[in-house]
Write a structure and sequence with these properties.
The protein is of the alpha+beta class. 20% of the residues lie in helices and 23% in strands. It is elongated and about 50 Å long.
Length: 71
Amino acid sequence: AWAQVAVIHLGAHADPEVIRELLTDLIARYDALRLRFSPTSAGWRQRVLSDPGPLPFDVLRASAAHTDPVI
């Protein structure tokens, strides 16, 4: 299985919920961001999900001294 992970450092005034909505809209708009690959006996199978489900999305604080949200 493959996964793409990204850490985005945001300013203190960034709204994580707005970022989540933007990423969800982006994924809905571009088929390539909804591609899934699975192995079969004939090789790899590619499919595009019509609804990928909820976006895995966590907001973390790096430390008490560093108060900017990290998505």
